[in-house]
Amino acid sequence: MSAEALHFWIIFTVPTDKGGDRGAIRPLHLAHVADLERRGILFLAGPFVDDVENKPQGPGMIIVRAATRDDAARIADADPYHVQGYRTYRLQKWRLSEGSFQLRVRIQDEAAELS
User: How far is the C-alpha of 48 from the C-alpha of 52, rounded, in Å?
Assistant: First the structure.
């Protein structure tokens, strides 16, 4: 694996005070993230959650493969939450340098486990 393959951009996405129905934008946001995954751009994504009920709380994090800050910004700028002003974002370059994981996919069960 090349050293560049271990570099990612983190999009810290933060809710704004904008009123309105942000829930109506959620399907568009999820479609955007699914498209990034299909295109091999998305590494990992998800909301931060509270430690009692695991409910989304505040900001989220989207980790993407992008060659430059400008490329990462274009990805973030295309997120419907950002386009509509329901969230802002901050970018941070990140290098994966420690850790391990295993992925088990059971095709017949349509299930996956990450450990």
Answer: 12
Q: Give the pLDDT band (50/70/90) at residue 101.
A: confident
Question: Can you give the pLDDT at residue 1?
Answer: 54
Q: Which helix (H) or strand (E) holds 73?
A: helix 69-77
Polymer length in residues for the chain: 115
Beta strands in 1-115 (DSSP E): 7-15, 42-49, 56-64, 87-95, 103-106, 111-114
Do residues 106 and 112 make contact, with C-beta atoms less than 8 angstroms apart? yes
Domain at 4-114, CATH from 1.20.140.20, 3.30.70.1060, 3.90.550.10, 3.40.630.10: 3.30.70.1060
CB 41 within 8 A of CB 64: yes
Q: How many CB atoms lie within 10 A of CB 28?
A: 14
pTM, entire model: 0.84
